[in-house]
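Working notes for the structural subgroup meeting. M.R. asked for a predicted model of this chain before we commit to crystallization trials. I am recording the input and output together here so anyone reviewing the notebook later can reproduce the run.

Input as submitted:
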Amino acid sequence: MPRIALVTCRPGPEVAEDRDLPDLVRALGEAGAEASAVAWDHEGVDWSGFDLAVIRSTWDYSWRAAEFTAWAERCGKATRLANPADVVRWNTDKRYLGELAEAGVPVVPTRYLAPGDPADLPAGHEYVVKPTSGAGARFAARYTPGEHDTAVRHLRRMHADGFTAMVQPYVRGIDTTGERALQFFGGRLLHASRKQAVLTPGTPYDRRKVAHPGLTAWSPTPAELAVAEQALAAVPGASGEPGPLYARVDLVDGEDGRPQVMELELVEPNLFLSLHPGSVPRVVEEILRAAAGRGR
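Returned structure, recorded in token form:
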């Protein structure tokens, strides 16, 4: 009977509920595993007592990124960790988008402003400012050129907190075709979803946002699947073992109407299993394979 930890975080006012977690624990138990949900920062956990630790909903990690990646390193030495600690460390800093672009992956154009850099913000078009370590649109906001002073205050707040900011053009395709999330498990497409725009004009950066508004099931186009697979192939060490067990590739349409990577989520993506209940058996199968040391 494999012992499996589904790694989550402690409840809190700014932490969303993982609605998939109880069903996944139950499904793994019915498949013969001893599965439990465990908070990543729970003191006294003996991670070596598990055959596999699967990071599922550590949705407070971006507030404590250095602490979280240090935990991932420790946990990965004590047991099998999915995704592996080196993948986690790479993916917790969204400067990985620059590396994907260098590898030829179409991504949303992104500039980075570290603490101490001048507030070099766009003129003439809408843009988005957000931290390179963030989740659920935390500390993200959408600005017009006329809101320069507000955007500068936002930037200064992030820099004061030690965050590097990323600045992107607001991709207007989101308003018409939405954002598509292609979910992979065990190296193969699991399912896909589409959501509406998260950032609305005038919403303050420090206000909590609805992370997945208007979520619906989606059938990815061949072009979307090709870009997603190109992004996954560019992950450092993706062809080695163990590679990523799971991944979510978020796509939007660029000005040319072609899909671009908005985000590549390899740490704690919401699986949207409540929207895709038919995917649960595949997820259970792949987790059991990973616990036995097979597959990815």
